[in-house]
Amino acid sequence: MKKIALFIFLLSIFSSCSIFKPSIMLRTGKNYTYAKVPENPQFQYKVANNDFISFKIFSNDGFKLIDLTNYSSSAGATANVRMEYLVEHDGIIKLPIIGKTKIAGLTIREAEQMLEEQYAEFYNKPFVMLNVTNRRVIVFAGTGGGASVINLTNNNTTLLEALALAGGISTGKA
Question: Is residue 136 within 8 Å of 150, Cβ to Cβ?
C-alpha cells in the first residue's frame, strides 16, 4: 500500500513539473493558410478626448522643411513651432494664436487641414504636421508580473511588433 501511494505521489510530482507543449502560442500546422494583411488599412485614427496632440507649423507650404541646402535661422526663416496640447473633455483644444477649437472626432488629416485653414490668417501658406502622442498599449510579457508600456508611433502597429518592442514573451514556467 505504501509503495502504491509513493508511486502515485512521485508520478504526480514529476508530471506536474514538466511542460508538454512549450511555446504553443505561435505554432501552426504545416498546411495552415495565413490571413492576408491588407496593404492599405481603412482604419484612420480619430482624435479623442484626453489625447495629447503634438504638432509642428511651417510656413510657405513647408518649403523650409525640405530645403536642405539652407540652414539659416534668420528672421525670415520658416516658423517652426512644436508643442504638445491636451484635448479637453469636451473635445476642444486650446492652441496659440487661434485659441480654442474643436478637434475631437476628426482624423489626423482632417485636423491638419482644419488647422492649416485657421492658421492661414496668421501664416503665409501654413503646413501643419500633427501627431497623437499618447497612444500606447500595456504588454504583460509572461510570468513575474512585469509589464511594459509601449508607445504606438505607427497607426498600424501589429501585435507581434508590440510584443517585440516589449522584449518578447517570457519562456518561464507558469
Answer: yes
As a three-state string, the secondary structure of 129-158 is EEEECCCEEEEECCCCCCEEEEECCCCCCC
Tell whether the model's pLDDT for residue 157 goes beyond 90.
no
Burial readout 13-43 (b: 16 or more C-beta within 10 A, e: otherwise):
eeeeeeeeeeeeeeeeeeeeeeeeeeeeeee
Whole-angstrom Cα distance, residue 133 to residue 140?
A: 22
Asked if 79 and 57 touch (Cβ cutoff 8 Å), the reply is yes
Coil vs helix vs strand at 96: coil
Q: Is residue 40 part of a domain?
A: no
The answer to whether residues 142 and 127 belong to one domain is no
**91 and 157 share a domain?**
no
Q: Report, in angstroms and rounded to the nearest whole number, the Rg of the chain calculated over CA atoms.
A: 27
Which residue bears the cell 523650409? 64
In this structure, the answer to whether residues 104 and 124 fall within a common structural domain is: yes
Q: 26-81: per-residue pLDDT in tens? A: 677 788 888 887 676 667 888 999 888 988 888 887 776 544 444 444 444 445 55
What's the pLDDT band for 169 if we cut at 50, 70, 90? confident
